[in-house]
Every structure is written in C-alpha cells, then in structure tokens.
Write a structure and sequence with these properties.
Layout: H1 6-12, E1 17-23, E2 29-30, E3 33-35, H2 36-42, E4 47-50, E5 77-82, E6 88-89, E7 96-104, H3 115-128, E8 132-144, H4 148-153, H5 172-177, H6 179-191, E9 196-201, E10 207-212, H7 217-237, E11 241-243, E12 256-264, E13 267-268, H8 279-290, H9 292-299, E14 321-323, E15 330-333, E16 341-344, H10 353-370, H11 397-406, H12 408-414, H13 416-435, H14 447-453
Parallel strand pairs: 1-7, 14-15
Antiparallel strand pairs: 1-2, 1-3, 4-5, 5-7, 6-7, 8-10, 8-11, 8-12, 9-10, 12-13, 12-16, 15-16
Helix pairs in contact: 3-10, 6-7, 8-10, 9-10, 9-11, 10-12, 11-13, 12-13
Amino acid sequence: MEAAAVPAWLDANDIRWVKTEGVSLDGLVIGKHIGTPKFTKCLPRGNAITELVLGYDLAGTPYLAWWDEWRADALGDIYQQPDLATLVVAPDRPRTANVICDFVDASGTAIPSCPRGVLKRVLAQLTDRGFAAKAAFEIEAMLFAEPIETARRKHFQGLTPMSTDVPIGYLQHNSRQQLAFLDVVLARLEALGIPVEGWHDEAAPAQFEINLDPADPITSCDHVVRAKQVMREVAMEQGRAVTFMAKPSAEYGNGLHVHHSLTRNGEPVFYAPDGAMSDTTRHWLGGLMASAGSTTSFLCPTINSYRRMVGFAAAPTVASWGEDNKSASLRVLSIEPKAARIENRVAGGDANPYLVLAATLASGLAGLDANTALPPPLAVTGWGLPPDGYPHLPKTITSAADALEADTGLAAVLDPAFVRYWMNTRRWEWLMFHTTGGDPMAEAVTTWELDRYFELV
C-alpha cells in the first residue's frame, strides 16, 4: 500500500487507532497506539520512540556499558517506520489496525541493530547472488491453567499444565484440553492473514506446537512475531499463562525450528533426488556447519537457552547435519523438489525469529563466498556422543559469544558493527545473571531465569 492510500484505507475500515509493532533485540514487541491523524501525518518515517527500545535488556536495564555508533551521545529518539504491506485490521479490538515497523533514524536511514533490518540486509545480498528464499517456523509453547498474575506470584513455579502431566507427545486428549485456547488463537491468526499448516500436542506437559505455512523470509518472521503476541493476548483474556521460554521446567524445552529453501531461476537449489548435492548446496550447507557455533549466539540468546541443550531431550547438542535426521542440528530434506529444504533445529523458543533467520541465511552465504567444504553427515543418533570427533555446540551464552567473535566470515555478511553490539548484549546478559541474583552453580532452572524470561521472551 502506498502512503497516499492510507487515509482512505483507514476511513474505509473505520480505524481510529493504529498499533505500531517494532521488535527489540530480545524479540519484545515494542510500540504505541497512535491516533489515525497522527499516524498519517508521520508517514513515511513514522512515529518517534526512545532509542532505549534497542538499548536495554529484558529487565529494563540500559546497556550503558556498551554504546554503539548509531546511538546518540545524549539519549534521544529513533523512529518506527511502518511497513504498510503489514497494515491490517485488528481482529481483537474495534476500530484498531496493527502495523509492523522498522527502526530508522531521523533521516529515515535504517538503524543497524534493528532485527528486521538485519534480515533485510542479508536478503539483499541473497538477491544480489540470484537466489530467492522461503522459510517456515514451528512455534513451540507451553500453556498453564493459572492466570498470569497468579503465575507471577508463584515465580512461575508449580504451575498446572493444560495437559496430562506426563512427557508424551501427540496425545489428542491433550489437544482437547488446549482447544478452547487454540480455537481463538487460530481464528485470530486467520483474521491477520497468517496461514497455519497444523498444530498438535507436544512432548512436554503443557506443550503444543503450531506450524506456520512457508512464506518469504520477512513475512515468515512477521507471522511468528504476531502469532506469539496473539497467544499471549488470548492467554491473558482466558485467565491462562503461556510461555515460549526455552526451558521453564525439567521436561523437554520449547524450540523454534526454522525451515528454509532456496531457488535460483525458479529451480529448487537443495533438490538432490539421487543424493548427489550440487556444489552450491554443499558450500551453503558447509557454511551452516562452519558457523554452527557462532550462530548459536542468535539461536540461543539467553542464559536459560542452554538448559535446553542437553542430550536425549530433543534439542541438538552437536554441530551436525543429516538427511532426515531429527537428532542432527541441521536436518536436510532433499529428495522432493517442492519440499527440498534445510531445517535448523537449534533455536530455542526464546529466540528472535528475524535474527534466527538472518544468522542462518548469512552463514549459508558465507559458505558460498568461501567455498566451504561440507563434512560427512551424521550417520547415528546425535546425543551422548563424545566431543572427540563430534564438535559440540556451545554450552553457555558466553562461549557462543566467543565463537561469534571469532567468525569473521559470518560477521562480514551480517555487518561487523551489529555483530559487535549483539555480542556485547549477550555478555551483558551473563553479567546480569551473575550480579543480580542468578545462581551460576545451579544445574536446574533457577527462579532468576523464570522471573526474567517466562513472560517476556
């Protein structure tokens, strides 16, 4: 939609308020409710918002120890530039529309640390090389019977799962217990134009999974952001609590698996029916493997993310790939032309989808640029393997940041300045855990993690 057409669209849909939706580094949906006169007046740059939305952590503590070039010396404003292709009538509130925004400066130039903008920069490089991509996410979440206010008072511990309290997946009578919640969620997603392939009960008590249809990468990530927001809102309205936290309990954790495919001149790049991969596929997958440790920083962004990365608990623990091997970190599906794709199974439910996909595609591009060799596939189950001969993924937020710092090829595609800023925010998260009440000796999920992550990631 062109900016000139917006006033007529707002009038035709009887819109009085526009909810702006930007996404922070940690995946928080940030914005304002803007009256329609102000919204149209601010186009195309969008409304002002404090730069701290990209400059503070999940507890609201500013990153004053690390400043980046885009941040003014004095705290000031940046702007939420609406992507008018995402303007849609809100299905949950009369006379309201929602729009997803990018963060820009006063001149309308993209802020380097805007997660949506990071993905756009990677996609521009992909297009320059003659490729097009599609992506699809699997969203895992856990639903509990208590209202969020009660869950807060209990520090999110001892909650009642909306399912049988045993770790068995795909149970239809568990799905029935979740139906009142998911029926409303699915209806709102449909109204927002977000197609869903299916959903099912998952392995942990209270857990379910929603599979979104493939779309172009930006749209696919937009759908994840909106779907998670819808689930939070419906849970609040129904007196329930929902979380996407990577590991809220001792059972299986929440993942955010992402599938991506490439085409060139309309032909599927990853299609290899006889197992003979093209050089492009081998170098692309080689890049994903070479950067498996460094991309973990984006795919597993919190202290709690690494509680999920343990053996025999569904999440991958070694840097590996295999044809239709769900214990590998990269599951390759190459024998069907319309379904030829790579599934990255590392990301936790707490990850920012824009950064998950940006890091994944950027590592593939880095592999193409370097003609990176592809190691042999994982021919066994990927858990319980010794580190000798099987490179393990990082086990802590700081070791993942260290791996990212050393990966100059990945940084060159993502933008070194952004990578430096992100890396410092993850080291800040480690510092906060160690100085504001976290227990670094704990082997199980701590109250600090639950209070910090359960409600927000």
